[in-house]
Write a structure and sequence with these properties.
Helix 8 packs antiparallel against helix 14 and helix 13 packs antiparallel against helix 14. This protein is 81% helix and 0% strand. With 334 residues, the chain is mainly α.
Length: 334
């Protein structure tokens, strides 16, 4: 996570300034996969931490450049919804696949993920057109942060949306298993419902932004998403999956239009740089969400609260923070 936030955007910005998007995307993908493969060698703690740092940085750089390439090839910012949906779909497929592979070997998911990254990097050299490297960007990293004010709000709402995800992952697993007394397989189905709907709805929501003001869609999505967190601790077990469907739809209504808004906020030559900042913001948000969830639940449990009340409090706090995106969106115009 630290590598994704601190170094990933710098690599993407540098690639665009040098006019070397295709090569940097390919090399970053290969190095991201290789960094993951290093973990299978069971190195010392220091090497392991460095490897994971680099893996996060190279991954964000590669994905961001590829996302920017899609936008440059399209005629509308809404085309960003395609690659956004692909990113979420890969997560939705990768989580259960990793679970299946880990039953055979703890190293197998790492091997598959590592070699997949290397393969994608090699393919990128042949698939991405040479025109990807045309028109170098003049935008520095500092200028991207200070000279593109229209980029800040989309990055912020995506970071808040990912914050809520980070605050949900572990607490929902514990809440489902120890409070609702359901099996892990049921909790996995809840997450699958969220991610599948999220992936399927991201592109349609991005396209809908061509007819409906995008910030209104973001406000609707953030409100729907926040409501699922506020209600999560009060619905019966059978109602959780319905909330996850709504959460997936709300997330898509935030993410799809935000991608289009971010793509339109910078010159065409700096699309990958904008995507890198958004991806880094989302990664940071997820990290902070997990920190908040662990800190709040741990403090409440230590204070003598019951597990139900402790994790419901986490859901409510995350929901209220997510509701802040509604305020942000309602104050913006496309």
């Amino acid at each position: 996570l630290l590598g994704a936030v601190a170094l990933g955007p710098v690599l993407a910005v540098r690639a665009e300034r040098l006019g070397r998007r295709r090569v940097v995307a390919a090399v970053s993908s290969v190095l991201s996969g290789a960094s993951l493969l290093v973990v299978t060698l069971k190195p010392g703690v220091e090497v392991l931490l460095v490897s994971r740092f680099l893996q996060g940085a190279f991954y964000i750089a590669a994905v961001s450049i590829l996302m920017g390439t899609i936008r440059r090839a399209g005629n509308s910012p809404a085309t960003m919804g395609v690659v956004g949906a692909a990113v979420i779909a890969s997560i939705a497929a990768g989580i259960p696949l990793g679970g299946v592979l880990s039953r055979h070997s703890a190293e197998l998911p790492l091997l598959v993920g590592g070699f997949s990254g290397v393969l994608v990097g090699v393919l990128a050299l042949f698939v991405l057109p040479v025109t990807t490297d045309q028109s170098p960007s003049r935008m520095t990293f500092g200028a991207l942060l200070t000279g593109a004010p229209a980029l800040r709000a989309p990055v912020l709402v995506v970071a808040i949306e990912r914050f809520a995800v980070g605050a949900l992952i572990v607490p929902l697993q514990i809440y489902g298993r120890e409070v609702l007394q359901v099996e892990d397989a049921m909790v996995n189905r809840w997450f699958s419902a969220l991610l599948v709907v999220f992936a399927l709805a991201t592109h349609p929501m991005s396209k809908l932004g061509e007819r409906v003001p995008r910030w209104r869609l973001v406000a609707f999505g953030a409100g729907a998403y926040a409501s699922t967190y506020l209600l999560l601790g009060f619905v019966p077990t059978g109602g959780v999956v319905a909330l996850m469907f709504i959460a997936g739809l709300g997330s898509a209504a935030v993410y799809g239009p935000s991608l289009a808004l971010a793509a339109a906020a910078v010159p065409d030559t700096a699309r990958a740089s904008a995507m890198a900042v958004m991806n880094a913001g989302g990664t940071l948000g997820m990290f902070l969400g997990s920190v908040l969830a662990g800190g709040v639940s741990g403090a409440l449990l230590s204070a003598g609260w019951e597990r139900r009340e402790s994790y419901v409090a986490v859901f409510i706090i995350a929901g209220l923070i997510q509701a802040a995106s509604v305020v942000v969106a309602l104050r913006r115009r496309d």
